[in-house]
Design brief:
This protein has 220 residues and is of the alpha/beta class. Helix content is 43%, strand content 22%. It has eight helices and twelve strands. The protein has a five-stranded parallel sheet with strand order 2-1-3-4-5, with helices on both faces. A four-stranded antiparallel sheet has the order 6-7-8-9, covered by helices on one side. Helix 1 crosses helix 5 and helix 6 packs across helix 8.
């Protein structure tokens, strides 16, 4: 599995590279968007900065997307809503604002790759089973009736387990970025989903002042 790291700052590339190699990924590097376009064909996933000389990340991604179906996570020192929405509008898979946690970035890389590979058609944890192909959820072999959005939320959480997700990310990825919802929309659906999960409600934990996380506690 090859990761293309695109950033004009060598220090940033070196940090990401170290973690990627530690996770058994091969690494390709590029300093700008032009190099990224040239090397994208050899990559299985792209981690790309937005603000770069010669060609910015968004411009490079547009070209790459026309040629390849390569999952891409964008990085930016700016956290403006415009950048985030513009990225999702183009079709990127995830977005992180600098400074970022390398461990969280690796978790996001693993989650994106897993989604693209289509691994694991069934998620199981104790007596909880989620059948992705059948679009159904079971607890102790009894089907749990979820609304479409509750199901989409649960699947997104599972695909990003262990990652703290902001309410904005949930709105962008589950409701789509142009949905005119608000934090209460997320909180209300989380409450209903937790109620329907019953004894497994605590798998969805609240991250103070940010959002939520799907977390499996091994000692339970």
């Amino acid at each position: 599995m090859k990761v293309l790291i695109v950033d004009d700052e060598k220090l940033i590339r070196d940090v990401i590279k170290e973690y990627c190699l530690g996770n058994k990924y091969d690494v390709i590097e590029a300093e700008n968007g032009i190099e990224a376009v040239d090397k994208a064909g050899d990559a299985d996933i792209i981690i790309m900065d937005i603000m770069m000389p010669k060609m910015d990340g968004f411009s490079a991604y547009k070209i790459i997307k026309e040629r390849y179906n390569t999952p891409t996570i964008m990085l930016s020192a700016r956290g403006e809503e415009y950048d985030i929405l513009a990225g999702f509008d183009l079709g990127i898979d995830d977005y992180m604002t600098k400074p970022f946690s390398p461990k969280e970035l690796m978790a996001r890389i693993n989650a994106v790759i897993k989604r693209y590979k289509g691994e694991d058609n069934i998620f199981t944890y104790k007596d909880l089973k989620v059948d992705f192909l059948g679009h159904s959820v079971y607890i102790k072999d009894e089907e749990v009736m979820l609304t479409p959005k509750e199901y989409d939320l649960l699947v997104y959480f599972i695909n990003n387990k262990g990652i703290a997700l902001s309410r904005e990310q949930l709105l962008n990825n589950v409701w789509n970025y142009d949905y005119l919802g608000n934090d209460r929309t997320i909180d209300t659906h989380i409450k209903m989903l937790r109620n329907n999960l019953g004894e497994y409600r605590d798998l969805i934990t609240t991250v103070r002042r940010m959002g939520y996380k799907f977390e499996i506690k091994e000692n339970k």
